[in-house]
Amino acid sequence: MGIGERLGNVFRRRGLKQVNVALAAGIPPATLSRIISGEIENPWHSTIEKIVRAADITWAELYDEPRLRLLPDDVTKAREFQEVLERILENDAQQKEISRRSSFSIIRDPNRRLVSDEVENLPTEKIPDEYQRLDANRAYRVHTDAMIEARIPEGSVIYALATQNIASADDEIVVCRLNKKLYLRRLDLRGNKTVLVASNPRYENIVKRAKDRFTLEAVVRMLR
Q1: pLDDT score of 96
Q2: pTM exceeding the 0.85 threshold for the entire prediction
């Protein structure tokens, strides 16, 4: 049983309205509807967490075991195991999609020099129609594997919407400049801090200091 079907079962059992939960979770109601209908088969784990919190659903209830009592350590281990499985499935699906029709155009240049920026602006790159429909107006080549678990491999080309509206970019994957370096990270504005979060355990998250110069360049547009 997929996660969408499980959510639908809980919503029906509890009499929850999708639009109310979506608004409380801060996601478009259409996105929640597509998840529950199964149109989005592999939604982001962070999106499911937002839905679960907004609907006040326990993970045990979601997986049809409402009487199960787990110790805090058991919950932590279960979530870690679930995340590992999800990463394995996502990486497998990513490789299959890349070979068939990837959401990103893979470009490799074996002779390119080592660059310090994590992304490189491609001003002459043609943006595909499907990304233009998502308002993408910039293209970047990725020079890092910092976001590999978000299905953005090194050497890929990503498409983004140029913006400096930092508040609207919270929890989004962004291209930003910290001091003199361009980064590709997930922006986290919780706790009155600006944190650049990597999706690769080899990279540490970066917390912006008061003396740092930070500029938002663009928000990455990704196809589900």
Answers
A1: 60
A2: no
